[in-house]
Amino acid sequence: MNLLLVDEAELVDGCARLTDRRADHLRQVLDVAVGQRLRAGVAGGAIGAAEVLARDAAAVTVRLCDLAPPPPPTPITLVLAIPRPKVLARTLETAAAFAVTRIELVNAWRVDKSYFGSPRLAADELAAHVRLGAEQGGTTHLPPVRVHPRLMGFLDAHHPPDAAPARALCAHARGGVPIEAAPGSAAAPTTLAIGPEGGWIEREVDTFAARGFTIVSLGDAILRTEAAVAGALAQLALLRRLHA
């Protein structure tokens, strides 16, 4: 936990009494002491510090202070073909650590249809992993996650054929231009599509291309889903810094 996240509803006169896993982490991992300050913020809101006011076996009480507006989220919408449920959890946490704007989970030819019945796709499960990722990445932004049972339904709604051009990238393990050579400003809002384990099939790649996506390569290595997400987001972050 690199950032203590507190919900607005937990605050009373700027203070929060924590009794859940956060309190356990503060006691058992960080071994906080009264008077100690930690990086903290309000989920979806301001960021600053928290002063430990009290600690006992039942709870840790903190007071938020020095709050300021948070940095804006990373201007990336991640379109992710649903991987295996255990991989999904880790991948959501990685994406949230990068503070992506939102996450769209989509179907694909190589997505096992049984995944849509997994309890890991329940809203509370998705939100829990996003929160863990935000705590790891040190951001108060919690990207909303939506599930789309049909890839074409998502594309028709958000990337119709006659839409105005927008910066959209589709990662493909078997072709495409280097991601650094993709057209458009590195700082522009970007949609990034990452396929399932096994990758997009060629028909899906052609469909993305027809909807205005640039097909990009992340390099020579063929990566697992979670590694591809981390690698792509890290490359895009570097490109934004280099062109700032």
Q: Which structural category do the helix and sheet elements fall into?
A: alpha/beta
Secondary-structure element series: EEHEEEEHEHEHEEEHEH
**Low-confidence region ranges:** none
| Adjacency order of strands in the biggest sheet | 8-7-6-11-9-12-10
Whole-number tally of structural domains: 2
Rounded average pLDDT:
94
Classified in CATH, the superfamily of the largest domain is SPOUT methyltransferase, trefoil knot domain
| Secondary structure: helix percent | 25-40%
CATH topology call of the largest domain: Alpha/beta knot
Task: Summarize the structure in short.
With 244 residues, the protein is an alpha/beta fold. Helices cover 30% and strands 27% of the residues.
Notes on the protein architecture:
It is elongated and about 60 Å long. The protein is of the alpha/beta class. The strands form 2 sheets. Strands 8-7-6-11-9-12-10 form a 7-stranded parallel beta sheet. Strands 1-3-4-5-2 form a 5-stranded mixed beta sheet. The chain folds into 2 domains: 4-68, Hypothetical PUA domain-like, domain 1 (Ribosomal Protein L25, Chain P, Beta Barrel), CATH 2.40.240; 74-242, SPOUT methyltransferase, trefoil knot domain (Alpha/beta knot, 3-Layer(aba) Sandwich), CATH 3.40.1280. Strand 4 and strand 5 (60-68) form a beta hairpin. The protein is built from 6 helices and 12 strands. The two termini are 29 Å apart.
